[in-house]
Amino acid sequence: MSTIQLRTPIPGSKSKALAARRAQAVPRGLSHGTPIYVAKAEGAWLEDVDGNRYIDFAGGIGCLNVGHRREAIVRSVREQLDRFMHTCVQVTPYEGYIRLAERMNEVTPGKFAKKTLFLNSGAEAIENAVKIARAYAKRPAIIAFEDAFHGRTMMTLALTSKTHPYKAGFAPFPGDVYRIPFAYCYRCSYSLKYPSCDLYCARHLEDTFKRVVANEEVAAVIAEPVLGEGGFVAPPPDYFKVLVDLCHKYGVLFIADEVQSGFGRTGAMFASERYGIEPDILVTAKSLGGGLPLAAVTGRAEIMDAPAPGGLGGTFAGNPLSCAAAHAVLDLFEHEDLLTRANELGDQFQRRARDWQRRWPLVGDVRGLGGMQAIELVQSQETKAPASEETKQITQYCYEHGLITITAGTYSNVIRVLVPLVAAKEQIDEGLDVLESALANVCDKKDAVAQLV
Question: What is the chain's mean pLDDT, rounded?
Answer without folding.
Answer: 97
